[in-house]
Amino acid sequence: MLALTINGVHQPLQLKELPDPQPADGEAVVRLRAAALNHRDVWIQKGQYAGLRYPAVLGSDGAGVVSSVGNPQHADWLGREVIVNPGLGWGDNPHAQAASFTILGMPENGTFAEYVKVPVQNLYAKPPHLSWEQAAALPLAGLTGYRALFSRAGAQCGEKVLVTGVGGGVALLVLQFAVAAGATVYVTSGSDEKIQQAVAMGAAGGANYNHPDWPGQLKQQAGAFDVIVDSAAGDGFAQLVDVAAGGGRIVFYGGTRGAINNLVPGRVFWKQLTVLGSTMGSDAEFAAMMEFVNEKKLVPVVSRVFSLQEGNAALEFMKSSSQFGKIVLVIGG
């Protein structure tokens, strides 16, 4: 099979011919039609990720057709259109992943290839209303956003939700999930254009975080927020505390702006806030996310599509932070 491999830190992806994967008992091989990028792939290339092992085939998100199974009892999966849950071995505790939990694409070979091998339990029927590219855009971002918004923050119909950094894949799906659940949603971005695109998708308003008084703008528009979903952390996190409503919940699933250094404890406990960390999600949450997407006919936003051979260009486009939605690789015909 053709696959994009990475051989070390700061190395470009290389298109190579690798042996086709062979499924063991309980496993299936998927002939991929599309794969999506995540910032995780960039961090791995930069060497800023735990448990690095090279060479590797990156890619956590994929959609395709089941081509082989390791046990005849799973033969009913053959030929089925599927998407792959990239979380491997969450474990039995719904509150946190097991120590052995991994994500497809490091250390296990991922989806930037013509074929990928995964446990059968990680296969889910592709939503029929989605294209291959849209289906590939859903798994990791959808799971991360669903757990953060619903399982951790407990967002409810009628609440006011703030989604920061709209334009990224997870943030956009959180926006879509929250709107579909009946929440009133506001966003932040460093781009006025992205804010307007979010409004076109159902957001009630937003603020550009490059403006010196973006918290004031949000307060003027919305008052205060019951739920805030963040991926940046850093020094701006303290301002999220300022716009949170009393008894509000702030959940974050990333830290692209680094450590939280200026948070005054009194602002948190006096407002009775709950601050929550979240990452990925359980198998049950993936199933619930898929049911929600199918019920609401939600469609992930695809920003740009590249071929498998253009993997390095796709990574560079992600690094530019100019995308609005997911970046997808099409694989084969």
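The record above closes out task 2.4. Task 2.5 opens with a second protein, given below.
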Amino acid sequence: MGPATSPQGGPLTRRGFVLRLLAGVGGVLAAALVVPAAGFAAGPAIAGRLRWPFLGGSVPPTPRATGWRAIGPVGDFELGVPKLVPVTLPVKVEGAVEPTQVAVYVVEQDQADAVILDIHCTHMGCPVAWSDGAKRYLCPCHGGAFTATGDPVAGPPPRPMDRYQTQVTDQQVWMGPLIEPA
């Protein structure tokens, strides 16, 4: 095998090699800046069309459903202790209404009142988990913490957890639409 040659046919000089190397590195850096910027610019046009299979559906969507659903008898919930409850709701997805399973936390206040909270942190939308030891909902992403009724007590969450309209009728807890934050 002979010496490397330049596109002009002559031998490849040290200077030519360094210039080609710098051009390649510059191209990679330019692509690293342009591709995310193009994705950001195209975001509104492709919103809702992309599926993220690598997330595995582990984060249920925050539903914007209307109507009311019975989610269990009052006796299923312990006074002041949040319980994670899966609920199937009709949710509008890409223009069609589909039954979607979501999760909520239900906290019984007394025999005639309950609080139903969305499971997502109000900072970046990460799912929170109730910690019996800390007596708080804890967000694993940025250290947010909320009381049993959803009020922020630590970290960056800017507002309380989202709530659903709630009714207790005939010893049954009912979940209504999400109360939009002010």
